[in-house]
Amino acid sequence: MWETTVDGRVLHFHLAGINNQNFIMRDEETGSWWQQITGECVLGPLKGRRLKQLDHDELTFAAWKRENPQGRVLRPDPKVAAAGGYAPADWEQRMKSVPVATTLADPNAVLPARTLIVGVEAGGASKAYPVDALQKQNPIIDTIGGVPVLVLLGEDGKSVRVFDRRLDGRTLEFFRKPDSNELLDAETGSAWDFTGAATSGALAGQRLRKIYSLKDYWFDWKTYHADTGVYLLGAR
Amino acid sequence: MKRWLLFILVVLLTLAFVVVPVFLIQPFRPQTARSLEVGYELRRWSPWLTIATAALSLALVVLIWRGSRRWWAKALAVVLLVPVGASAWFARQNHFEWMFKPLSNAAYAPAGEVDFVNDDDMVLAVERGGERVAYPVRLMAYHHLVADDVAGTPLLPTY
Question: Do residue A158 and residue B146 have CB atoms under 8 angstroms apart?
Answer without folding.
Answer: no
